[in-house]
């Protein structure tokens, strides 16, 4: 076995990193923290969280870590499961195009549990979050596109490893301890995309955060495990993805810039899969410029590059929850001027007038269309073309939807997102925003946890 393979080199880079010296990275981390809490508080009344609580309560255990918006605490690992689920329950949380998944809803719940024991500074918490996003983004690039296309859910398979690296960094793990933690997380990796459109999709985030914390605890206990989990044909990349790509790309240029800044996190304005955000923006524009009644719409073509709709597995959704992964449902809502709101994507039946429009909406794939240089994700676009029954035709193309890097939300936008999620508790929202803005000391972390 190579004594200085990928695992050891990665652990060394993590241990030696000092992202707190980069003001842009720390500001980006504050924005990510704000967005995570906005997404989690918006989901606090989700039906699935009550079911998860019943599982946690039946198991029992200590009550050490606050669960967002629940007014109570759970155990070290169960809180990570619950907080991970909450952050992703509405598919309203951030995305990173390198990951092809959702970093913060795995990394931050693990870090909150690890920080709840006390003695962790706010600066260290933010720096560990930067490390987690960096690790997950690099894993996303290194694993190769085939990993996702084969049916793996990157949030689940990559998130636990990144969260273990972040938590290990938070706790000051040595290089060797980081190697062990990465290995324990890697051996737990799993999560299938055929769960999209069900409560298990956001559960993947909680399970990954929970796996990261088990990895930390096993490491601290001195449990036996390999120091080389990422290396060779039997290692993580050899089994799950593209070992050659990982060896070429995983570590290259570490620390020259931070992925939380460049390309940056994609903060959502809509509570559904980011793969449908291009179509949503296009359909909203079409509605503004050419409002049509449902009966006046003859056909809607939604044009993607091949594979651009891989995450959108629902073509004939019957509930709003399934509609989070249906570009047909998203387009139908937007074209008819209905809100793209949390309520429209709840687990309740879709209204009949929307169901009637869905068969007139079809997906088209055209690889002859030149991708825009500024497209996010790279090579991606969506065109929505509406043909009216009277023969008129209207189209809009979106390459970089609102919220994505290059068309990013501002700190003010995220402030409003959090305030909207806590509309009934404006004082709590203001206190959270103030605490995040000045997060520096261990006392600030304690205050943050108290506000959850």
What does this protein structure show overall?
The protein is of the alpha+beta class. 50% of the residues lie in helices and 7% in strands. The chain has helices at residues 6-16, 23-42, 47-59, 76-88, 104-115, 122-143, 145-149, 154-170, 175-186, 200-220, 236-240, 243-249, 260-264, 277-289, 320-323, 327-335, 352-357, 411-421, 426-437, 442-450; strands at residues 65-66, 73-74, 297-304, 361-365, 382-388, 393-398. β5 (382-388) and β6 form a beta hairpin. α2 (23-42) packs parallel to α18 and α4 (76-88) runs antiparallel to α10 (200-220). The protein starts with 5 loop residues before the first helix and ends with a helix.
In short:
Belongs to the PrpD family. Helix content is 50%, strand content 7%.
Most strands sheet: 4 strands, mixed
Give Rg in angstroms: 22 Å
Structure class: alpha+beta
Order of helices and strands: HHHEEHHHHHHHHHHHEHHHEEEHHH
Low-confidence stretches: none
CATH architecture of the largest domain: Orthogonal Bundle
Measured by DSSP, the beta-strand proportion falls in 5-15%
Q: Could you tell me the mean pLDDT?
A: 96
Q: What is the domain total for the residues?
A: 2
What is the assigned CATH homologous superfamily of the largest domain? 2-methylcitrate dehydratase PrpD
Summarize the amount of helix as a percent range.
40-55%
Domain MmgE/PrpD C-terminal: 270-423
Organism: Paenibacillus konkukensis
Family: Belongs to the PrpD family.
Protein name: MmgE/PrpD family protein
């Amino acid at each position: 076995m190579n004594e200085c393979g990928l695992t050891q080199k990665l652990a060394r880079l993590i241990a030696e990193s000092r992202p707190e010296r980069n003001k842009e990275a720390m500001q980006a981390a504050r924005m990510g923290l704000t967005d995570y809490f906005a997404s989690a508080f918006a989901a606090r009344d989700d039906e699935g969280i009550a079911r998860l609580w019943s599982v946690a309560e039946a198991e029992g255990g200590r009550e050490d870590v606050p669960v967002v918006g629940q007014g109570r605490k759970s155990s070290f690992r169960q809180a990570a499961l619950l907080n991970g689920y909450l952050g992703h329950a509405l598919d309203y949380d951030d995305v990173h195009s390198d990951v092809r998944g959702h970093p913060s809803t795995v990394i931050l719940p693990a870090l909150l549990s690890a920080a709840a024991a006390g003695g962790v500074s706010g600066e260290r918490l933010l720096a560990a979050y930067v490390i987690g996003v960096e690790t997950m983004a690099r894993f996303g690039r290194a694993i190769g596109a085939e990993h996702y296309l084969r049916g793996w859910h990157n949030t689940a398979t990559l998130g636990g490893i990144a969260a273990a690296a972040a938590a290990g960094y938070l706790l000051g793990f040595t290089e060797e301890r980081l190697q062990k933690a990465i290995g324990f997380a890697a051996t737990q990796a799993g999560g299938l995309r055929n769960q999209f459109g069900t409560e298990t999709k956001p559960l993947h985030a909680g399970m990954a955060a929970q796996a990261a914390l088990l990895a930390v605890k096993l490491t601290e206990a001195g449990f036996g495990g390999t120091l080389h989990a990422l290396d060779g044909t039997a290692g993580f990349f050899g089994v799950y993805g593209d070992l050659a790509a990982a060896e070429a790309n995983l570590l290259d240029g570490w620390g020259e810039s931070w992925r939380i800044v460049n390309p940056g996190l994609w903060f959502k304005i809509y509570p559904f899969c980011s793969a449908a955000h291009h179509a949503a923006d296009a359909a909203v524009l079409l509605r503004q410029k050419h409002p049509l009644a449902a009966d006046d719409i003859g056909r809607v073509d939604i044009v993607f590059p091949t594979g651009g709709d891989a995450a959108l597995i629902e073509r004939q959704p019957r509930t709003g929850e399934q509609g989070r992964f249906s570009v047909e449902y998203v387009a139908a809502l937007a074209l008819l001027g209905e809100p793209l709101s949390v309520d429209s994507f709840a687990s309740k039946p879709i209204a009949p007038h929307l169901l009637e429009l869905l068969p007139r909406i079809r997906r088209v794939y055209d690889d002859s269309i030149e991708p825009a240089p500024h497209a996010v994700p790279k090579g991606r676009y969506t065109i929505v073309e509406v043909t009216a029954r009277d023969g008129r035709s209207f189209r809009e193309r979106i390459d970089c939807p609102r919220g994505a890097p290059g068309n990013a939300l501002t700190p003010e936008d995220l402030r409003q997102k959090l305030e909207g999620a806590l509309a009934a508790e404006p004082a709590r929202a203001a206190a959270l925003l103030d605490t995040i803005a000045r997060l520096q000391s261990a006392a600030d972390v304690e205050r943050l946890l108290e506000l959850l």
